[in-house]
Amino acid sequence: MEDPHGVAPRGGGGAALPPTFRAAHFLVTGSARRRARSPGSDGPRRAGPRPGMAEAEAKMKQFGGGGAGLEAERGRFPYCVVWTPIPVLTWLFPIIGHMGICTSTGVIRDFAGPYFVSEDNMAFGKPVKYWKLDPSKVYSTGSNAWDTAVHDASEEYKHRMHNLCCDNCHSHVALALNLMRYDNSTSWNMVKLCFFSLLYGKYVSIGGFVKTWLPFVLFLGVIVTVVLTLHLR
């Protein structure tokens, strides 16, 4: 027997919903499903990058790009003065060592001996300490003033005799800084560089620090031991 509303009953004896009720039910459930799938729903979302992550990564890579970054493993120290120990001499006087200056791409130039300025092959081994300079403090005019000054100083020292006390690797670096008028100064010299390198220089690694100071500490320990032994006798 037909239902008075014209809707056939469902199997199993349950009464069917009228057509208007079924249409309303479809609209409600369909709308709920669309909200669940929409990006603005309260459902689970994929984790996106945290705010500020891009800026943090950019700061971490501030020396990167174009192969001109500070890379100690490859011996690249752009806009830096670099330093390495000299066997025996540094063991006795740890503040004295061999110094060089790097180009804007990190290539090391150092006055390595009479009439010879090394390029990318620092005398006495890889740098253990570096002093990062600020290229914005170069007051010399002209394009690429930093590299020009480093080049001109190196060419000049290719015609000079090496003198350990008066005209040495520190003097070569000082000439480069004077030519570029770094920090608006033309009074750079080996004594000033030795002091500033000791004050502002950073060790490349713990191994570099040990390589610089351990021989001196051992040598000092031997002297103290000998003195105490003789004194106690």
Distinctive features:
233 residues; alpha+beta; elongated
Q: Overview of this structure, please?
A:
By secondary structure, the chain is α+β, with helices and mostly antiparallel strands. Helices cover about 40% and strands about 10% of the residues. The protein has seven helices and six strands; from the N terminus they run ααβαββββαααβα. The protein has helices at about 20-35, 55-60, 90, 145-155, 170-180, 190-200, 205-230; strands at about 80-85, 95-100, 110-115, 115-120, 130, 200-205. Strands 4-3-2-1-5-6 form a six-stranded antiparallel sheet. Helix 4 (about 145-155) runs antiparallel to helix 5 and helix 5 packs across helix 6 (about 190-200). The N and C termini lie far apart (about 130 Å). Mean pLDDT is about 80; it is low at about 1-15, about 40-50 and about 50-70.
Order of helices and strands: HHEHEEEEHHHEH
- Beta-strand residue percentage: 5-15%
Give me the number of helical elements: 7
Q: Which structural category fits the helices and strands?
A: alpha+beta
Please count the beta strands (DSSP E, at least 2 residues each): 6
Strand order of the largest sheet: 4-3-2-1-5-6
Largest sheet: 6 strands, antiparallel
Which parts are unreliable, with pLDDT below 50 for 5 consecutive residues or more? 1-15, 38-49, 51-68
Helicity level: 40-55%
Distance N terminus to C terminus?
129 Å
Query: Would you tell me the overall average pLDDT?
Result: 80
Radius of gyration: 36 Å
Shape: elongated
